[in-house]
Design goal:
Layout: E1 6-12, E2 25-30, H1 36-44, E3 62-67, E4 71-75, H2 86-102, E5 106-114, H3 121-132, E6 137-142, H4 151-163, E7 173-175, H5 184-202
Parallel strand pairs: 2-4, 2-5, 5-6, 6-7
Antiparallel strand pairs: 1-3, 3-4
Length: 203
């Protein structure tokens, strides 16, 4: 898939105010500081489509981006270590869960995980919640370039072993690096395949 246009559409915390178009929607979510904004910019070939920040928890709204005028990329607030009050975190959690349960255009979620670290309880619990609520998702391992060629497969194997304690099989996953572009083709091809399948079902 070649991305010819990527445009910001709307930011809000009210699922009812999300775009009305029936375009397929793909939501990107992960722990704060997982490299979500950098990944979105890498996938779309835009330097600052999503705002990057050294301060975790910068994304605090549902952000819709129109891609090629036929699907939406959705940047969701990071969960975990955002420097916000407990009351704000509760608000985030509520509209994130509302988004996933109410947004009918949602085709799939991408859960971003920093492959440098051991499996984190908060990520595992969130993926379990998605599974229990029958929400399709893939894992995107980020920052793969920060590991050596020998360490990367070891970390993937370790993560897979942990996931198989909870899942019958390892969920679909991608290995990416925002700085090198690793995984870009694979993620976009996956989205493109799903979009084509959706189009064929309409005919």
């Amino acid at each position: 898939m070649k991305i010819s246009s990527a445009e910001f559409v709307i930011s809000n915390s009210d699922v009812a105010r999300c775009p009305k178009e029936k375009f397929p929607e793909y939501a990107f979510i992960g722990r704060s500081n997982v490299g979500k904004s950098s990944l979105i910019n890498m996938l779309t070939d835009r330097k600052s489509l999503a705002k990057t920040s050294g301060r975790p928890g910068k994304t605090q709204l549902i952000n819709h981006f129109s891609i090629n005028k036929n699907w939406f990329l959705v940047d969701l607030p990071g969960y975990g270590y955002a420097r916000v009050s407990k009351s704000s975190k509760k608000v985030f959690q509520k509209f994130i869960t509302t988004y996933f349960s109410k947004r009918t255009q949602l085709v799939s979620a991408f859960v971003l995980v920093d492959i440098r670290h051991d499996p984190q309880k908060i990520d595992l619990e969130f993926m379990q919640w998605l599974g229990e609520n029958h929400i399709p998702f893939s894992i995107i391992f980020t920052k793969a370039d920060k590991l050596t060629k020998n360490q990367l497969p070891k970390n993937i194997e370790s993560y897979t072993s942990e996931m198989l304690n909870y899942w019958e099989e390892m969920p679909n996953y991608f290995i990416t690096s925002s700085s090198s572009g690793m995984g870009k083709k694979e993620v976009l091809s996956y989205i493109d395949e799903i979009n084509k399948e959706i189009d064929s079902q309409k005919k």
